[in-house]
Amino acid sequence: MNRRMRTYYYAILGAIGGLIGWQLSDFLGLSIVTNLYLSEVIVGALIGLVIGLFIGVAEGLLTRNFVQALKSGSFSALLGMIAGGIGLPLSEFLFQAVGAGILGRVLGWAIFGLLLGLAEGVVGRSQAWKGMLGGLIGGALGGFLLESARNWLTDPLTGKAAGLVLLGASVGAFISLIVVLLSRAWLEITSGKLKGTEFILDKFMRAGGPAVAIGSSPLKSEIVIPDPDIAPQHAMLTGDGIRFTLKDMSLSGTLINGRKIEHTQLANGQKIRMGNTEMVYHEKR
């Protein structure tokens, strides 16, 4: 999926997470405990878990890497549960005890979004601070929309449902949008089953950081391309803080602009061919 559509799908999955989170929290509601803040911890944790799960699996689903979807979804769900368990009671505390009004609740949801963005940044293909920034903005905007929907709609259940859908969509959209807008390097698949998909490489750019493997096996490679003519671990990308170097690790070879290479420094716009799949390397200066 290209980078523009990536944001759309993150928003949709976040919205679905918000809707399911509302149903779960409405099913349990405030009746399970009498203490207001403990109840907010439980309900917030449920909402955070589901929104975190759906946002977490987004990248893996879009790139058809279901191993990554499982790993990132599990981690994001766990951190989302923590985020909701902190964010919702904090927003209630700021609203009631400190008298911060709606701004207090917005701040609580902003912290909720920040922690979800951290989870996505850690397990996704972006630097963690970008996910955190996107989550912070999305959580603040989504929190404002949530509180506004609850105030504008006369039915409290409808208001809560609409608000949580907007919250999930906002957090998901901004986590993706900030990563896309600030991305410096990415691979665009131009042929094969994943045609149109773009893999953001910023997380692997820094010198001394982890290398990223490209191949057909989700167990051996971070960038997985479903092509039988691509080796399980076909090539390796290594960043030096400015650009990437590509090293071929296969028997069938890797082509750059039609020429077979063993080890080369990548430049913007170069066409890379592995097996029956072609991709283009993009970078911004």
Characterization of this structure:
With 285 residues, the protein is an alpha+beta fold. It contains six helices and eleven strands. The chain has helices at 3-28, 36-62, 66-96, 101-123, 128-152, 156-182; strands spanning 185-189, 198-200, 212-215, 223-224, 235-239, 244-248, 254-256, 259-261, 263-265, 271-274, 277-283. The model has no long low-confidence stretch (mean pLDDT 85).
Instruction: Tell me the span between the first and last alpha carbons.
Output: 23 Å
Rg to the nearest angstrom? 21 Å
The computed structural class is alpha+beta
Q: What is the H/E string?
A: HHHHHHEEEEEEEEEEE
**How many β-strand stretches?**
11
Helix content estimate = 55-70%
- Dominant shape: elongated
Strand content: 15-25%
Q: Total number of helical segments?
A: 6
Main beta-sheet annotation: 6 strands, antiparallel
Average pLDDT confidence is 85
Q: Pick out the low-confidence regions.
A: none
User: Major sheet: order of its strands?
Assistant: 2-1-11-10-7-8
Task: Detail the topology: elements first, then pairings.
Layout: H1 3-28, H2 36-62, H3 66-96, H4 101-123, H5 128-152, H6 156-182, E1 185-189, E2 198-200, E3 212-215, E4 223-224, E5 235-239, E6 244-248, E7 254-256, E8 259-261, E9 263-265, E10 271-274, E11 277-283
Parallel strand pairs: 3-4
Antiparallel strand pairs: 1-2, 1-11, 3-5, 5-6, 6-9, 7-8, 7-10, 10-11
Helix pairs in contact: 1-2, 1-6, 2-3, 2-4, 3-4, 4-5, 5-6
